[in-house]
Amino acid sequence: MSNTYKSAGVDKEEGYKTVDKIKKAVGETHNSNVLNHLGSFGAFYEIGGYKNPVLVSGTDGVGTKLKVALDTKKYDSIGVDCFAMCANDILCHGAKPLFFLDYLACGKLDSEIAAEIVLGMVAACKDNNCALIGGETAEMPGMYQPGDYDVAGFCVGIVEKDQIIDGSTIKAGNKIIALPSSGFHSNGFSLVRKVFPNFEEEFEGKPLYETLLVPTRLYYKDIHKVLEEVKVSGIAHITGGGLYENVPRIIPEGLCASIDESKIRIPSVMLELEKRGEVAREEMYGTFNMGVGMVIVVDAEHAEKVLHLLDDAYEIGEITEGTEKIDLKF
């Protein structure tokens, strides 16, 4: 019997099935700016309506949160996570997402699982007025074990050059406003899985995995609602490294984000992890978002308007003079 690609572990037909299962849904994310369809070698997106446009791009994955999804066979939220981790990053500069591409790698392709993951991306793209214009599915036996999947995404957005937000206008006296997270989002899951090895255990009346797999919150509508009404000086997406690593990225030299930890609304699942894993509070804040998914910095005179525009936002501190860039008071 002669060797074939299929005998080596790669089933092209399963890839074709995946495309068939997602093609219609992916097409529903397209608008008149998308100039080609799924199956081309490259994806084309026409830009119009801007005076001095700047493209803003971001790429990310889901990390070991995928293990929770794979072990519990719950795949629908992972695509949302992948999109959100990329799109939320470019929002920090005031950009609107234009289009998204995905990369899905596995040991043995199952078109049902692959389609479920991609359809999560489709739902997230629709929610953010973003087109899913391309992607790649790689079946790599020997690199990944059967049942293993990895996923990454690439998001491109746009902003007028004179409207770019980069933190450079932040000044002492500005207020720091938190937008709540929906949970762990997609960070710190190596520690989450170590402390919570049994995803099926009951937590607050339901299987723990349901809490762990709540998808990363999408902030597009919230951020742009604020940008339409208020001059924003800085935005930080709180991902890996937590507040400690992400807030300083937008703080100019000579200034400090002074944050009152007692004001932060920490989710109960994070408090349970802290207690059960005997994790120091400082380590928690350096690993997880601790309930703060986004931080917005605005002039003090605009703070109340932001809180009015966003029902669940709340103030956690202010900008002061200092050299540390962040002072998280416990």
Automatic annotation (TrEMBL):
Does the keyword Nucleotide-binding feature in the UniProt annotation? yes
Whether Ligase counts among this entry's keywords is: yes
Major place of residence? cytoplasm
Keyword tags = ATP-binding, Cytoplasm, Ligase, Nucleotide-binding, Purine biosynthesis
**Ranges for the PurM-like N-terminal domain?**
54-159
The GO biological-process annotations, alphabetized, read as: 'de novo' IMP biosynthetic process; adenine biosynthetic process
Protein name, entry field: Phosphoribosylformylglycinamidine cyclo-ligase
Species name: Chryseobacterium panacisoli
Taxonomy of origin reads: Bacteria, Pseudomonadati, Bacteroidota, Flavobacteriia, Flavobacteriales
